[in-house]
């Protein structure tokens, strides 16, 4: 197995990463519209579109900002091109969340809108991470050197944690979990909140298996993003745990 995975067309070399990244977006959108047809959406199509635009703009900004903060020592040396090329899913989720909340306030939508996106996001993440894995150490999703049985040579001759594969397994577990609670009566919006908390908990923990540059208090920008999410959904967490204790 040679990393990164690539193919040639007309004597030009292309990476599979781009194919899977595009496929992830396409499949996620198709699943979203498939699920949307099966429910009575309390949010109008026009407002849904506006909210999605807000999410995409927020994700575009957030993914770049958090990626920029992943390497604090390199901030002064960033160009517009490197700033645009570097991105992180965690930052995209954080920025997307802020973009949605801001646009909803602007258009006066007070109904939670995230539950419908959970399964499409899980599917898109799974497919997208195939692309990340295909890049080996050329994509910053590889882990530290390890003697654990899951260690793989990702292109530099060292046995490393295949972080992208770990996340793919986690996405499968999340899909099974949300399918199992599909029939449970939850408050509108709780499924998305639960997804965000679980995903960022995973990202917080798996970050310790990756080579990272601390941003503050020996934690990376992604870990601080995770802490922000935990604080943002603190009331939700208190309510869920209180419900379980009862």
From TrEMBL:
The keyword Transport does not apply. InterPro entries: Lgt. The chain crosses the membrane at residues 14-35, 47-68, 88-104, 116-138, 163-180, 192-209, 215-234. GO terms for biological process: lipoprotein biosynthetic process. It comes from Flavobacterium hydatis (Cytophaga aquatilis). GO terms for molecular function: phosphatidylglycerol-prolipoprotein diacylglyceryl transferase activity. Coiled coil: none annotated. One of its GO terms (cellular component) is plasma membrane. It comes from the Bacteria. This is Diacylglyceryl transferase.
